[in-house]
From TrEMBL:
Any one GO molecular-function label of the UniProt entry: ATPase-coupled transmembrane transporter activity
Family matches, as Pfam families: ABC_tran
GO cellular component, one term: ATP-binding cassette (ABC) transporter complex
Keywords attached to this entry: ATP-binding, Nucleotide-binding, Transport
Membership in a protein family: Belongs to the ABC transporter superfamily.
InterPro entries on file: AAA+_ATPase (IPR003593), ABC_transporter-like_ATP-bd (IPR003439), ABC_transporter-like_CS (IPR017871), ABC_transpr_CbiO/EcfA_su (IPR015856), ECF_ABC_transporter_ATP-bd (IPR050095), P-loop_NTPase (IPR027417)
Domain ABC transporter residue range list: 1-226
Protein name: ABC transporter ATP-binding protein
Matching SMART domains: AAA (SM00382)
Species in which this protein is naturally found: Nakamurella leprariae
Length: 226
């Protein structure tokens, strides 16, 4: 992932507002955390990676591919999970939701269902396959959202506060799962313990990256500021 002098602006009732100003970073580490105060621009930075937010200036690349010029190509490579899985669980049942993610890989609905059930089994979700997504617990829903995204085999996973709504046990479980993945992980989090386990962290404040380096030292720096 590469951010090259990226500025993001939004039009508001009070005029243009700069959400990110001149952010540059080449992220090659396997686990990268984005930390910083509420409203500092972490989600905006994360959302640039799959084109949910577009730069006003500068360039964003994933695997060397420009996100603005080749949006569809980049989106296929980037999986995205949010703190509230309800935002991405769109089908009535767990199995149907995963099957939807697999629609381009398996043409027949029978094959899709079989593949979806295999995915659910690998995440320990077999029991809930035919249950309404609304009846699942928060932890199960987040696991399902993650399973659906990972079923598409992205090369990069962007997770925006994926553990915020979870209890300690589920938050640890999702954390362990994220850290065990082969994909490069860009993790937006207020959980500084989780952030400190990353290889690198960027501290975002007021739309700028104000510290960047080994995660444990950036986290210590941020803690010292509080
Ligand atoms: N489309 C938009 N239009 C106007 N302002 C926006 C827009 N998107 C984000 N913002 C503002 O930009 C700032 C940065 O938002 P962002 O969601 O990136 O912060 P964050 O660091 O992820 O915050 P949090 O930790 O609270 O989730 C906030 O003040 C937010 O209100």
């Amino acid at each position: 992932m590469e951010f090259d002098d990226v500025t993001v602006r939004a039009v508001t009732a009070d005029g243009d507002r700069t959400l990110l100003a001149g952010v540059s970073a080449v992220l090659t580490e396997s686990r990268v955390a984005l930390i910083g105060p509420n409203g500092s621009g972490k989600s905006t930075l994360a959302r640039l990676v799959n084109g949910l937010v577009e730069p006003a200036e500068g360039r964003v690349r994933v695997d060397g591919i420009d996100v603005t010029e080749h949006a569809a190509q980049v989106r296929r490579r980037v999986g995205f999970v949010f703190s509230d899985p309800a935002a991405q669980l769109v089908m009535p049942t767990a199995a149907e939701d995963v099957a939807l993610s697999l629609r381009t890989r398996h043409r027949s609905s029978k094959d899709r269902r079989a593949a979806a059930l295999a995915v659910l089994e690998s995440y320990g979700l077999t029991e809930v396959a035919d249950r309404s997504v609304h009846s699942l617990s928060g932890g199960q829903r987040q696991l399902l959202a993650l399973a659906g995204v990972l079923a598409t085999d992205p090369s990069v996973l962007v997770a925006d506060e994926p553990t915020t709504l979870l209890d300690l046990r589920n938050s640890r479980r999702i954390g362990q799962l994220l850290f065990g993945l082969p994909q490069q992980l860009l993790l937006v989090t207020h959980d500084l313990e989780l952030a400190a386990q990353c290889d690198r962290a960027l501290l975002v404040e007021d739309g700028r990256v104000v510290a960047d380096g080994p995660a444990d030292s950036v986290v210590d720096h941020y803690r010292a500021l509080a």
